[in-house]
Amino acid sequence: MKEKFKITNGTGWLLIVLLVMGSCSNEDSTVNEEDSAFEVAQLVSSDEAESISEEIATIGEDVMATEAINATGKSLYRSNYLPDCVTITKVVTDTTRETTIDFGEGCELPNGNLLSGILFLSRSRDADAATATVNFSLENFSFNGVAVEGGGTLVRTASNENGNPQSDAVASYNGVWPDGSTASFEGNRTREWIEGYGSGYWADNVFLITGKGTYNGKLGNVHSREITTPLRRELSCRFIVSGVVEVSRNDASVSLDFGDGSCDAKGELTYPDGSTEEIFLRRFNK
């Protein structure tokens, strides 16, 4: 990872944090209004969008941890989650801290996700505050071929009631999938870092995620999505490994169970009539 560092009108350390959240979807098959309220293709696209939000959050958390731990002066910390193809540029003024995270035309993360474009982060300079508010945005950003625009605001708490770092964010985005289908999505999310903080090894990091949001697919079908059992994200896996999400449209709802902790692309749907179906999530199954 290449870093460019600039300090203007003063000295100090940087504390950068990003959490991007929001639940989203595209609908990659034609759906008539007479059809079922829940098409598997819609739910799979929604889950892929969840993965986009989660990956952006992970990147922000990694930058935050690096800056916060190095600011203590106890050690030179680097998680190595962001590879050398990422360029980070930091600017500090008397009142602000800004970071540009540039993935160039394509940069593959350790979990195999391919990102391009830029994440921007901006916050006030008070690094000693127990909480910090960060504004974030995207420029020419893509995730595995999905173009994403938008941004939001995050409030980060250095230590919650459990003694863990936690972030609460609201965000709004638009996505365009490789097949040309589109979706808009917005929501709020809380993300607690429960294992591995400061270990210096990214693969032992674990997060619990709660929150809810809505997404609007290309045919105007609006679904709401609420996490009813916290989602568990282990950075050693590119998928959510457990937790339950309830997806609702009109007066009907289904639940999506991510399983027992195994690292796979499978999920189990439970329909309103109690029947279940195992599905593969995202456009890739490995």
TrEMBL record:
Domain of life the protein comes from: Bacteria
PROSITE patterns xrefs: PROKAR_LIPOPROTEIN
Name the UniProt record assigns to this protein: Lipoprotein
Source species of the chain: Arenibacter aquaticus
